[in-house]
Amino acid sequence: MRSAESKLQYCSFQRLFHAGLAIYHSGVIRLLNHVTRNLIVAAIAVVFAASFQAQTQAPAQPQAAPQSQTPAPSQPPAQQPAQPQSQQPAGPQTNGVYISSDPLAGVRYDNRWDVSLGAAYGHIHAGPNLREGANLGGLDLSGSYWLTRRFGLEGSARGYLGTSGAIPNPGDIVKGPFVAQYMFMAGPEYLGPHNKHGAFVLHALFGGSYADFDTDLRHLTPDQIGFYKDQFAFGGALGGHIDLNRSPRWVFRITPDALITGYSSTSQYSHIQWNFGISAGVEYKFKKTRDVQKRPIIYKHR
């Protein structure tokens, strides 16, 4: 039974296949394909025409809106001045106007006095034969009196405190004793390159230095631990200031110097020491200014 049914289905498929070939050769399918292509082209043309008509009609609608907004001639003239008030400028609205200002616009180098205070660091040798140096910290207080725009006189008082190494001593009872150095100096200073942002100031200060080295020796003599004795000696500082203006009156100041001391002892080595010192702090310029002679302004008439 199954074989007979399959034979019938195969025979019917062959008939349909041969009928399809006959229809194709007869030109019916070709005619249908031609008609279908024409219908597709016509449909595309209709869609394009409809979309083009919609685009041409769209801008015409907003043009009618301004005509409806024009006031009628019957309106009283009293309402016409109110129209400019109701009109608002297009664009984002802001809460206020930002006005920039330059905090350094008033910087002038015509002050008579200034004073500065900063944290100081200084390196010293508390004895002539000590290989270990002492790193001390303290304060640097300086003041200036300007004679001219470029030249002035500076005075400086500095105090350095800390501990120092010591040579082997009886019983090693002294380890890291307290030492201090106080310097009082004065000298000329010169205002170098400067503008509203900052300035370089050079100075050469000379004066005295007091050494407090035998306060913490526990009944030992300074010679037993290789220290200088407490004394007044020559002191000096060669260097300058690096000023960074923060306002017309306040300045951030950095002061690097070469510290010079000349403590005396019975040692055969030189007593003159050159050590590095630096301080960082603030400077204040007083309002009193120098009497600067202004040049007359000559106007040329053309």
Structure write-up:
The protein is of the alpha+beta class. It has two domains: about 10-45; about 115-285, Porin, CATH 2.40.160.20. About 25% of the residues lie in helices and about 35% in strands. The chain contains five helices and eight strands; from the N terminus they run ααααβββββαβββ. It has helices spanning about 1-25, 30-55, 60-70, 85, 220-225; strands at about 115-125, 135-145, 150-165, 180-195, 200-210, 230-245, 250-260, 270-285. An eight-stranded antiparallel barrel has the order 1-2-3-4-5-6-7-8. The termini are far apart.
Q: Helix and strand layout, with pairings?
A:
Layout: H1 2-26, H2 28-57, H3 60-69, H4 83-86, E1 113-124, E2 134-146, E3 151-163, E4 178-194, E5 198-212, H5 222-225, E6 231-245, E7 250-262, E8 272-285
Antiparallel strand pairs: 1-2, 1-8, 2-3, 3-4, 4-5, 5-6, 6-7, 7-8
In short, what is this structure?
With 302 residues, the protein is α+β, with helices and mostly antiparallel strands.
| CATH class membership of the largest domain | Mainly Beta
Number of domains: 2
Strands, count: 8
Low-confidence stretches: 58-66, 295-302
User: At CATH's second level, what is the architecture of the largest domain?
Assistant: Beta Barrel
Descriptive labels:
alpha+beta, Porin, 2 domains, 5 helices, single chain, disordered C terminus, 8 strands, about 300 residues
